[in-house]
Amino acid sequence: MSPSPEAIAVAAILFVVIAAYALFGGADFGGGIWDLLAGGARRGAAPRSLIDESITPVWEANHVWLIFILVLLWTAFPPAFAAIMTALFVPLSLSLLGIVLRGVGFAFRHTAERLRMLRVTGAVFAAASLITPFFMGTVIGAIATGQVPVHPAGNVLAAWTSPTAILTGFLFVAACAYISAVFLVLEARQRGHQDLMRYFSLRATAAAVLTGALAGGTFAELSSSAPYVYARLTGIALPLVAISIAAGIAVLAMLWLRWYHALFLRATAAIAVATVVWGWGLAQYPYLLPTSLPLAAGSAPTASLVAEFVVTGLAVLLVAPGFALLYFLQQRRMLTAAETDADLRLAAKIEQAPPGQPAAAPAPAGTRMTTALVLAMLAIRAIRDAFSSPRRR
Amino acid sequence: MSAVAHVLVVNPVPARSQMGSSLGFHIILACFGIAFAAVTMIAEWIGIRRGDAAALLLARRWSKIMAVLVAVGAVSGTVLSYEMGLLWPGLMGRFGAAIGVPFSVEGVFFFLEAIFVGVYLYGWRRLSPWAHWWSGMPIVVAGLLGALSVVAANSWMNSPAGYTLSHGKITSVDPVSVFFNAATPYETTHMVLAAYMVTGFVTAGVYAVGLLRGRRDRYHRLGFAIPFTVAGIAAPLQVMMGDVIARFAAHNQPVKFAAMEYVSRTTRDAPEWLGGILINGRVYFGAAIPAFDSILVGFSPRTQVIGWDSVPPDQRPSLPTLIHLSFNVMVGLGFFLFALAAWQGWWWWFHRRLLMTKWFLVPSALSGVAAVAAMEAGWVVTEVGRQPWIVYRVMLVSDAVTPASGVPVTLGVMLALYAVLTVVSIGVPMIMSWRWRQEAPAEEDTEQVPYGPPPAGASPAGPQAPPAVPRASSGGPEAP
């Protein structure tokens, strides 16, 4: 039984939306990661305020992509949604925890006045930005490796704690940091902050290299853990993989040459990420859950798929102009948060900070990253133990 | 003890508790998402149109509060989307193709809302006054239509339609019938009115406290009058709507209605119970109005009201006392709020002034709490009343619940997090308002607003007439 054209079309829409979330939502998470790595209160003030300025007005709209993914998945492919949500209960709950904490951080951030409170909310915000993409990555890794059964009897811990899934989690974190740093270079350029441009350019390069390395590692892992996906990645999806690699190298070159073109740099970096998402989608075809649930068996009746089509059309009609307006205003810096209250004072404080200092002293990113990784591993171990006890087989 | 642990693991109770608590939390914020933009825009409209500094200041401050509530609401809404799958994979796996349709439509409006919230909240400084005002309009419209879509999904659970099932699998779907099922027009209207009442009364309640403490300047009077008017218009409509919906429920979900009204046997001359606890089939501590339930249902004492004996015991809601008392609380508070609004309406009609007596302001200060309690009670009625079904007469809650272990853990974490979220969404606005007063106590009448009339020189009295003129000070903000 081959999938209906409607099912293929809605699956294609789903992957466009996933790519959009990876780019826009991912960049916001990446902002949180750079916030985490920005160092002490004084040194980190300038990059933090840039991150804050560029994320605050748009994060909520960017977050809605995620809702759209969930809604599309459960309406168009209900059995896959039910299976994923059951088998991957734990990492999904943890990514949700991250989302909630990030929201709390956002809500509180702009009212917290004293430095200590700012630090706490900032830390919550930043930690959440690390947790969410990591666990989302493990979810994708678990799906790609075919570890999600169609009718799970409960949590499947092995699915998302496999080396491939964990690597995918780290890949997601690195990719978020990468895309965010590239966007932040351009944000800094727009605001004329030369030092911050260099600051984020350096970080974008580092994150690009790390992302490339992790992507290579995941790719190698897939050869043994997900033979079907691997075969298609090196087969029909190979052009997309090649484009992604080429775009990644092009971004590195642009950063190296300091050719910060607003459109080209942004677009190339976006292509590097989006093609990976689409490559994954193409590699899974025709399976929703490789290789147990094919698209044809897992899709909703035609009318529901058509309804999703109409909804998508409505979204393009209504949401696209809205987004265009939002980003236009944002880019023209028509949306400013600082007014009265703490914001203004904070902004004043930041302007008093001696210029050039952030670039002069890059954060000890390596040690922090390592600590974070070790802590994440320990946390996974602890969670795994906690959740596997009630029904151990 | 192990039996208890077993129940905790396999029973839908933890999942229901988690869903119930997160829905009960989100719904309050959702009300603000639906209606707060409208209230704020009325203030802004008055501010721009009349060059009223106090109104503009209110609008600007409300929009800052909105930023906090919307952020928390977006998060708690995401939690609900996740929980649909995390807790009820049985429901989504089988009926996702149907119930997903209204959710998808909601997604579009949520998008629109989120985008324009970004523009509205952060556009105060740089956008021109009317451009800024109009940037709020999509939030109001998207709030209404988004509420319509999400509540349509809940209506579908109460009144499933528009799908065919064969061998436990959906084979065809009619999206329009799913969306506009029999319960949709009733539930959505009820919820939108409730949202305007909750938002209006809660906001007005805050300023009623200010008025009670003697801050009777124009800023506080307007801050009370605008939201109170909005809620006061919604309140009588809600009372009428509630009556219509109860009759609809009596026909569409008779067993739920029987639990709401303590109708144990199908009967004519059914009495209307006020209060009372049901123990072993008998009502204690309640007052019965003879035949009044029959009159409410069919305008005649001879109307037959269906009791819960019409279905076998395992298909009856398990907590009739909770359902009945919640129903009583909702109706009672609804009438209380209606009376409050009518009192002020009467006074305004004849005296063109706000009531400043303690007898009015103290209940007004509590009206927000009352509105929230009434709405929560209403949700208890509709959700607990639907039990044991998750899709009325189609799917049992116990068939939909996740087999994944760990729900008690997530329930615990969720409760802790929601305690934090509650503190944030109440505490942050409180800190804000405290800080606003600390920073510039005199500012509330005269502060220079981001745009609008320039304050004539440095004169502390604004360009407007002195603020003590009662005529322009209160009520009827919609009137041009």
Structure description:
The complex is a heterodimer of chains A (393) and B (480). Helix content of chain A is 79%, strand content 1%. Chain A is globular, with a radius of gyration of 21 Å. The longest helix of chain A has 32 residues, at 5-36. Chain A has helices at residues 5-36, 45-55, 59-76, 78-87, 89-109, 115-144, 157-160, 163-190, 194-225, 227-233, 238-257, 262-284, 295-298, 302-331, 341-352, 357-360, 365-388, and strands at residues 287-289, 293-294. The model of chain B is unreliable at 1-9 and 443-480 (pLDDT under 50). Chain B contains 15 helices and six strands. In chain B, the strands form three sheets. Chain B has a two-stranded antiparallel sheet with strand order 1-2. Chain B has a two-stranded antiparallel ribbon with strand order 3-4. A two-stranded antiparallel sheet of chain B has the order 5-6. In chain B, helix 2 runs antiparallel to helix 3 (53-87), helix 2 (13-50) runs antiparallel to helix 5 (129-158) and helix 11 runs antiparallel to helix 12 (358-384). Chains A and B meet through helix 3, helix 4, helix 5 and helix 14 of A and helix 3, helix 4, strand 2 and helix 14 of B.
